[in-house]
Amino acid sequence: MWTDDKVRMLIDERKEGNAHYHSLGGGNCKRAWWISTAGKINQRFKTVYTGRQASEKFHGIVKDCRSMELSIIKDPRGKITRNGERYYLEFRNKFWKKPRLQFQRSQTQLQRQRSQTQQQQQRDQNRHFFSMVKYEIGTCYGCRKCIYCGCDLNTEVCKCDKTIKPKLSNRTKVVPHSFSQNFELNMLLCKKTFIQERDTLYSYNSNFKKRFIFTFCSTCNSQFQRISNKTKTITKEKPTNSNNESIISPVIIDVDKFVGSQDMCSISSENESIDQHDEISFTLIVKKVDGKQLPGKWLTFDASTFKKFVTQIQKYIETMIGEEIDQAEYSLAFKSAKSNGGGLELSELKDFEKFLIEYKKLFKMKKEIVVIANMNRKIVKKKKRKQVEEEILESDEEENDSKKKKVNSIPKVSGLTPHQKVIGKLVSELREQWHCSQDNVPCYVALGIHLKLTAKLLAMWAESIMDGTATIEIAPTHPDFAVQHATKNNLHSSATLMASQISQMYPIQPIQYISPQYCMVREPLAPVSNFSAISQLPIPSIEEFLKKIDKDEGDNGDFVQFIDVFNEQNISVKHIKDLDDNDFQILGVKTIGWRKTIKAAAKRYE
DNA sequence: TTGAAGTTGACAACGGGGAC
DNA sequence: GTCCCCGTTGTCAACTTCAA
Fold first, then answer.
1. Do domains A255-382 and A542-603 have the same CATH topology?
2. Quick one: CA torsion of A297, A301, A352, A338, rounded to 10 degrees?
3. Is the CB of A210 within 7 Å of strand C?
4. At A441, phi and psi to the nearest 5?
C-alpha cells in the first residue's frame, strides 16, 4: 500500500534526481534508477517494492494529474481523482520532463563561470597538448575534436563543457552528429588496437581493464566501424567451388591420436610466447557440408596446447550448431584473412606449430587469421546412421512437407541431443525441488515471495547449472529471476514479515532481487525506532527553501529573488502555511502560481 | 575515402483497460 | 484506488548504406 509518506519520498526522489535521471540514457539505465529508488523506499519503510512498481506508481500519479488537467480545462477526457486533486499543483509544472534547454543552460552556467575558468584555460593553452590529457566525454577519442564547437583541441582551447555526454538532444550545428562507443574487454582486437593507439597518442591513460564509454566524431566513427567491417567481409566470402565441396580437402582430426601421446605438449615453450596468456584471437568460420557458412565469430582461445585449442573450437561449433559433434564430423584449416585460396590444414601438431608461426607473423603485420571448420556430415551418417536416422528423416520431412507438420508437436526423446537430455533431466529435478504445494506449480521462494518457474525460466536455470553459474538450490544471476516479475497474487502474507525478520538479522538493504546473488551489501539500516524520525524532513532555512523551489521550478530565479524580503520580514518555512494573499502582496509575490508553489512546498515540512 | 543519413533493435514511457 | 497487463510510441545506440 502506497501511503502518503512513501509517495512523498517517491516524488521527491524523482524530482530531485530529474537531471540525473535524464542523463542516464537508454537501455537498462533508467530501470536501474527505479530499482535504486524502490530500494531507498524499502529501506526506510521496510517495504518490498520493485523498481517497476515504483515506476508505475509514479506514472500513475502523472496519469491522474493529466486527467485532472483535462478536467480543469473541461475536456471530456478529463477526470477528477483523489491523486489528481492531491498532486496536480505539484505536477503541473511537469518537473519530471527532460530538461529541454539542458545544453543552453550549461552554456549559461559556463558564462557565469567564465571569469573563474579563464585563468585555468590560459594555463591549458600554455600546456603542451600531448602532456597527460585526461579524456573528456565531450571530445572525440580519435582526434580530440570538441563534439560541441568542433574545434581541434590539439591546437585550440574551447569553452564548451566537455564533461556533458553528447546526445542527439544537445547536438550543435557545427557538430550535428556524435557517436557514443563502449570499450568492451571482449571487443575485436583490431578495434582495441585502434583505441589503444589513440590512448597512447593523446596520453588519455584510459583503464583498459574495465569497460568505459567514449565518443567519436563522424570521421573517426566511420574509421572505427570500417575496421570491423573488413573482418566481417572476409567472413562473408562465398565458397568458390560451385559443387559445394569444401575449399580444403576434409581431414578428420583425431585429437587423441595426434595429441594424446604428446599430451599437453606446450607450444609456447618451443616458440616465442604469443602473449602473456598464450591466447590468440582469430575469426572462426563454420562451413556446412552444403557450402553455406554460419556467421563468422571473432574468438580468443587458449593456444598453449593443440588439444586445448581444438577442444575449445569444438565446443564453440557445438554451441553454434546446437548439438554435440564428434571430432570426425569436421576438419580445420587456417589462412590469412586477406588471402585467397584454401589455406593450410590444421589437423595435427605440426600444422598447429605452423599455424602459431603464421599467427605471430600476421599479428606483427596487424593482419588477422581465419580458422575454417568444414563440416563433414557424410561421415556422420555412416557412423551414426541408426542413431540419427530418425532425426534426419524428420528434418527431411519438415523441409518437404512443412505445412503438414504440426508446429507444436512434442519432440521425440530419440531426437534430442545429449545436451538437451541433460537439460531435460535438470528441469525435472528443478520441478521436484521447487514444487510449491500452495500454488501447485514450481515456484522459486525467497524472502517469502513466490516466483513462478515457467518452462523458460526452468530451461534458463538448467542452462546456468550446466555453465556452473547456478545450482539446484541457488538461482541463476539473471534479471528474470527477480521479484519484480512475481505477480501480486504470488506475494504471500508472510512476505513482509519475513523480509523484516531477515533485515533485522542481517544489516543489509532488502532489495527487489530474490536471488542471493542480487543481495547487494549497503550501509546498515538505521534502528527501527528511528524510522519515524527519519521520515520527518528537517526544516530548512528560508534561503535553502526558496533555492530548492527555484531549482525545482526551472532555475529561473523566480523564487530566490524573495530571499531578502522573506528574511526582512522574519518569515521562516513554518510561517508560510499561515500567509494569506495580503501577506504575499507585501512580500512582492505577485503571481498566484508562485504563491501556490511556495505553499505547496512548505506543506512538506509541516 | 569520408561524412552523413538511414535502418534496426532494445528499452522506457505512456495510455487504455480489466480485476480486485 | 491500486495493481497489473498489454499494446503503442518515442528515444537512444549501434550498425549499415549512400553519396560526394
1. no
2. 30
3. no
4. -145, 165
In terms of Cβ atoms closer than 10 Å to its own Cβ (0-12, 13-18, 19+), residue A586 is exposed
pLDDT band, very low/low/confident/very high, at A575 (cuts 50, 70, 90): confident
Task: State the sign of the Cα–Cα–Cα–Cα dihedral A91, A94, A99, A105.
Answer: negative
- The pLDDT confidence band at residue A150, using thresholds 50, 70 and 90, is confident
CA of A477 to C1' of C5 (A): 26
Q: Are strands A330-336 and A279-287 parallel, antiparallel or unpaired?
A: unpaired
Instruction: Assess contact for A449 and A483: CB atoms under 8 A.
Output: yes
Architecture of domain A542-603: Orthogonal Bundle (1.10)
A87: Cα separation from own chain's centroid: 34
Under the banding of pLDDT at 50, 70 and 90, the label for residue A274 is very low
Residues 176-205 of A with CB under 7 A from strand C: 179-182
For residue A150, give the nearest of A135, A126, A129, A166 by alpha carbon. Answer: A166
**Which residues fall within 8 angstroms of residue A29, CB to CB, at 6 or more apart?**
none
CA closest to C15 C1', residue: A225
- Reported as a single tens digit per residue, the pLDDT across A101-148 is 333 334 333 333 443 344 344 334 433 333 345 677 777 777 777 777
Question: Is any atom of nucleic acid chain C found less than 7 Å from the CB of residue A336?
Answer: no
- pLDDT band at residue A371 under the 50/70/90 scheme: confident
Question: How far, in Å, is the CA of A179 from the C1' of nucleotide C13?
Answer: 8
Given a cut of 80, whether residue A545 has pLDDT beyond it is yes
Nearest-angstrom CA–CA distance, A494 and A507: 20
Average pLDDT, rounded, for chain A: 59
The closest nt to A218, taking CA to C1', is: B3
- DSSP track, A62-93: HHHHHHHHHHHTT-TT----HHHHHHHHHHTT
Report residues 36-95 of A contacting strand C, contact meaning Cβ closer than 7 Å. 53, 56-57, 60, 81-83
Span A230-251, average pLDDT: 34
Domains of chain A, residue spans: 4-91, 116-232, 255-382, 418-527, 542-603
Distance, in Å, from the CA atom of A470 to the CA atom of A516, rounded to the nearest integer, reads 11
> Rounded to 5, what percent of chain A is helix, strand, coil?
50, 10, 40
- CA A168 to C1' B4 (Å) is 14
At residue A486, the pLDDT reads: 34
For the domain covering A255-382, report its CATH number: 3.10.20.90
Tracing cell 498566484 back to the chain, one arrives at A592
The nt closest to A25 (CA vs C1′) is: C12
Question: What pLDDT shows up at residue A189?
Answer: 66
Tell me the three cell numbers of residue A592: 498566484
Q: CA separation (Å) from A117 to A114, A130, A134?
A: 5, 21, 17
Q: Which nucleotide is nearest to A27 (CA to C1')?
A: B11
